[in-house]
Design brief:
By secondary structure, this protein is of the alpha/beta class. It has a 6-stranded mixed sheet with strand order 2-1-3-4-6-5. Strands 7-11-10-8-9 form a 5-stranded antiparallel sheet, with helices on one face. Helix content is 30%, strand content 18%. The protein has 2 domains: 205 residues, Rossmann fold, CATH 3.40.50; 102 residues, DNA Methylase, Chain A, domain 2. The radius of gyration is 20 Å and the shape is elongated. The protein is built from 11 helices and 11 strands. Strand 1, helix 1 and strand 2 form a beta-alpha-beta unit. The longest helix is centred in the last third of the chain and has 18 residues. Bound molecules: S-adenosylmethionine (SAM). The site of S-adenosylmethionine has 22 residues, from helix 1.
Length: 323
Amino acid sequence: MLKCASFFAGVGGIDKGFEHNELFKVVYANEFDPYPVKTYELNSKLKVDCRDIKEVQPDEIPDFDVMLAGFPCQAFSVAGYRKGFEDEKGRGTLFFELVRIIEAKEPEIVFLENVKNLVGHDNGNTFRVINECLEQNGYKVYPMVLNAMEYGNIPQNRERIYLVCFKDERVYQNFRPLMPIPLKKKLSDIIDFKTKVDDKYYYTEGKYKGDIYEQLVAAMDDENAVYQWRRKYVRKNKSGVVPTLTANQGEGGHNVCLIKTKHGIRKMTPHECFNTQGFSKKFKLPKDMSDARLYKQAGNSVCVSVIERLADKIAEAYKAVNA
Ligand SMILES: C[S@@+](CC[C@H](N)C(=O)[O-])C[C@H]1O[C@@H](n2cnc3c(N)ncnc32)[C@H](O)[C@@H]1O
């Protein structure tokens, strides 16, 4: 069994993906936002360390073999501040908190997830620094950009970069890349187009300011598609999948994913957003938490089924060497 420690754990999407393979067990998780912590703990026996990572001393973390971290991407994201490591809010520098822990704990494997744009950020300098830091600590880095709709059998257009880093060069040599798989899951497998949901999710005449409702009615003609309200206009997702879920889709109305059903035009529910990230239908959401917080948690998380496949590949490589 390989012990995993999870940082920037959010609701635990990466953790769930690894624990699907019996080789991995998450023994520690750190996340400083109490809301995703609540969701995490509702779905796990683990008690999350909810301090700021900057306060966490390595000797307070149980020993572990695998570091899991989808570190905050705001500083690297095109939608963010474009400031990278220099982000004045300090988010860009959080990567170095991971390096501090790696140096002290020397895990066998480091698994990192981030936005695809990490590669091009600051003309490639950000990505170069990350790679150099990992290599200096003795890791061989295997980067991959994977889209959930091609590699996770989930109808979401979500491209993310994954860095799988191995201390043992032999394990690295045995690591095989993921191959694309057919997209068999349909929108109707993750979105309930048939059942009437709570009224609050529906757009009705006069419910919102201006002519939003009229615009939606005019633009949304397909009952098997996902649309997005983009501040001033409605956009249909042409590829027949859900567009990338974002953390801000609960705020101010933009980026919200909309569907047309026989009961009316409505937002996707938080549960449907978690389904869109490949979470099991058994994944529980706290009942007393606002939708805005839940949308944020879903958008911030990962496509669990892509992580599961990666965890299986890592396990295969590890077992090939450590039989
Ligand atoms: C991109 S999300 C990762 C989500 C996670 N992979 C999941 O499956 O839900 C980054 C997370 O890092 C957390 N975070 C940001 N700064 C932090 C800090 N200084 N200490 C601890 N957690 C932090 C945020 O609250 C957020 O939940």
